[in-house]
Specification:
With 207 residues, this protein is of the alpha+beta class. It has a domain at 72-202: minor pseudopilin epsh fold, CATH 3.55.40.10. The protein is 45% helix and 24% strand. The protein is elongated. The chain starts with a helix and ends in a 5-residue tail after the last strand.
Length: 207
């Protein structure tokens, strides 16, 4: 081996030995360097991230579902209150007696005609209404709970009978009516006073 060749090999070896690990990584280029850094994520870390993302998605879905259910219950309660107030005005103006009959999944407005209670058929607003699926009602009239399932059977045998009265004098039956979601703790309560006042409130402790 020549002297020149030995000197070249020694200089090359010394130069390679002076290259730091970071300089070596940079020499691989950006793609290979990034690949090296990605090898730092363990399988456990990836699983933890996936779990957190899945949990956040589930919470978001539940939140949207709850909000939609709450809105449905609130809307049905507000509709009933508005209809009772309209029936009250109509009873006063027409000097007629009205009532409300309930089942466990809906209600209908009645009018007293020739001493018999009849469904209202001349006004679309007072048509028979069925509650949306997943909703229910609980009724207390004159401080007594009403068994709506039994009341429906009785109505099928004897004809419609009002559970609540809306009188031409402006007075009402005293009542409490709760609209609630069958799966959850969402409820709105309507209270009617003898003097004719009808109030609505969100009842967090109704169930």
């Amino acid at each position: 081996m020549s002297v020149t060749g030995s000197w070249t090999e020694c200089r090359t070896g010394a130069w390679l030995g002076q290259i730091s690990p970071s300089e070596s990584t940079r020499s691989l280029g950006p793609d290979k360097a990034a690949a090296g850094r990605m090898r730092g994520f363990t399988l456990l870390e990836i699983l933890v991230v996936m779990f957190i993302v899945g949990l956040m998605f589930s919470l978001a879905v539940l939140s949207v579902g709850d909000g939609g259910q709450r809105e449905t219950v609130r809307r049905e309660a507000e509709r009933f209150r508005a209809l009772v107030l309209l029936a009250q005005e109509r009873a006063i103006l027409e000097a007629r007696e009205f009532g409300v009959s309930f089942t466990d999944d809906g209600y209908s407005f009645l009018v007293l005609e020739d001493n018999e209670w009849q469904p209202i058929t001349d006004d679309e607003l007072f048509r028979e209404r069925t509650l949306p699926e997943g909703m229910g009602v609980e009724l207390t009239a004159d401080d007594l709970p009403v068994d709506l399932a039994a009341a429906e059977e009785d109505e099928n045998e004897k004809g419609p009978r009002p559970h609540l009265l809306v009188l031409s004098s402006g007075e009402l039956s005293s009542f409490e009516l709760s609209f609630y979601a069958e799966h959850g703790d969402i409820a709105y309560r309507i209270e009617g006073e003898v003097q004719g006042e009808v109030s609505l409130q969100h009842d967090e402790d109704a169930l």
